[in-house]
Amino acid sequence: MKTVSKILIASTLVAGVGALIAADHLDAPAVGGTTADITDYFAFESAENGDNTVFVANVQSSLAPAGNDATFDENVLVEFNIDNTGDLVEDRVIQAIARDGRMYFFGPYAPSTTGLNSTIDASQMIGSVAITTDGNAITETTEGGIKMFAGPREDPFFFDFGTFNAVIGGDSENNGPNGGFQTAENAVDTFDGTNVLSIVVEIPNALIGPTVAHPAGFDVQVWNTWVEAKRQQ
Question: What is the pTM of this model?
Answer without folding.
Answer: 0.78
